[in-house]
Design a protein that fits this description.
The chain has 153 residues and is of the alpha+beta class. The protein contains 5 helices and 6 strands, in the order E-H-E-E-H-E-H-E-E-H-H. The chain has a 6-stranded mixed beta sheet.
């Protein structure tokens, strides 16, 4: 079993992360998911220790939907934060799920060293992983700075 597949009992979640989970559940209650019914809440802790919440917001034009993680990250940036330390999700599933690829790329931009935690719908189990585990070959600003010869722009 890979480390990212390991399930932990909620009792092993630190008190700080339990507080974050409370915020994620509150955000999840505001989720707008009439099409999928997949309600997600998220809280992002920035490098100053501030918490920023988000929920998924669906749209009839599916591509206009925005995930809870990206809502929370956008709020963090708009509120003056710039570095993600922790992302915690309130997952609507019995087995916790990690962020989608677009969200992982967004987390990579602002928190390449971030810890990602997902708690299940019952609040009884969680999974945890580092960004390196979830997105080992991520695209980052370093690739943008290289030209075809490997020279830095």
């Amino acid at each position: 079993m890979r480390n990212i597949d390991k399930l932990y009992p909620i009792l092993e979640l630190s008190s700080d992360l339990k507080v974050m989970f409370g915020y994620a559940i509150g955000a999840q209650e505001n989720s707008y998911a009439p099409y999928s019914g997949f309600h997600v809440g998220c809280v992002v802790k920035d490098d100053a220790g501030l918490l920023h919440t988000g929920c998924n917001v669906e749209n009839a034009s599916y591509s206009a939907t925005i995930c809870a993680e990206r809502v929370a990250i956008t709020k963090m940036i708009s509120e003056g934060g710039n570095q993600i330390k922790t992302v915690l999700l309130a997952s609507p599933t019995e087995i916790p799920v990690f962020p989608c690829g677009i969200c992982l790329q967004t987390i990579q931009e602002f928190g390449p060293q971030a810890e990602i935690i997902s708690v299940n719908s019952l609040g009884s189990l969680f999974k945890k992983a580092s960004m390196k585990e979830l997105n080992p070959s991520s695209f980052s600003t370093e690739q943008l700075r290289l030209n075809n010869n490997g020279d830095v722009f």
